[in-house]
Amino acid sequence: MDTQSRTLSGMRPTGSLHLGHYFGVLKNWLDLQESCCAYFFVADWHALTSDFADTSALRHNIEEMVKDWAGAGLDPEKCVIFRQSAVREHAELSLLLSMITPVSWLARNPAYKEQQQQISDRDLGNAGFLCYPVLMAADVLMYRPFGVPVGEDQLPHLELTRAIARRFNSLYGETFPEPRALLTPAAKCPGLDGRKMSKSYGNGIFLSDSLADIGTKVRGMFTDQARMRKSDPGNPDVCNLFPYHTLLTHERTLADIRQGCISASLGCVDCKKIFLAGLRVFLEPMRERRVALERCPGAVGEILDAGNALARAFAGDTLAEVREKMGL
Ligand code: TRP
Fold this sequence. Notes:
Layout: E1 2-11, H1 19-35, E2 36-42, H2 44-50, H3 58-72, E3 79-83, H4 89-99, H5 103-107, H6 110-118, H7 127-130, H8 132-141, E4 147-150, H9 155-172, E5 180-183, H10 211-219, H11 242-248, H12 251-262, H13 268-295, H14 299-325
Parallel strand pairs: 1-2, 2-3, 4-5
The structure holds tryptophan.
The site of tryptophan has 14 residues, from strand 1, helix 8 and strand 4.
């Protein structure tokens, strides 16, 4: 492992993770923990920027997310798993970076404008929400990563991180390398009903779903809606299930499924059975790891405590240098 090549990423604790999270983000994280020195954290302060009014689920969501991470195979022996709010250095660096960040950069951030327009059930006029990208820049720059694995929606934020790094370097001397985005090729992972898989739509398959839940969900999945009878030929390219086969089913079987669908020799019920069997094999080891973790009370706390300590040590070094360079 090349300890010089560091990477870092975070997720807001929004609750249970679904297959969209797995194929969109986690899979990339799992690869990175093998190839470089990786820091992954729960962005709980970021969750507060929009969900500050009711924080009753926060602790639970953090716990569930870490269980999902560990279940999926993130290994605290191979990477550092920590909680943002437990490493207060992030707040200090965020404050210092806010001094050199023009408000105009924040106000014209496309992600900010978009969310302000789209989210109408909450008031997002708070300073914390405006400063979201400054905190994110602090999260990232603290660990001087060469790259940050994120989804496309995070690109505007990462661009700001890079701009803030350049500004810092030009004011106080070369300190922060500009991290690049490590984009996950967008895996097509529609929800059960064909819309984007999302917790709020209630159309997801969760990593922590029981075998029974998975069965019910898969049986109720939309397929090719123009295919009314088994004897009608289907079209895998508009089918909602087929993209999942491409993610989970062996290539050889995949060709048979496509052919069977087009020629009407394979019906949707049988096609779902094949998928369900594959999905069970895929999720089973995750469930086993999760159950093992749940059997040890305090295990999640221990993972985070150990990771927090490692992150704090690294962050402390960065901040010492930043304070020095800024004349503090
Ligand atoms: N904004 C990210 C998200 O919503 C979470 C996040 C916070 C993050 N800080 C980060 C991601 C730093 C990568 C690096 O998913």
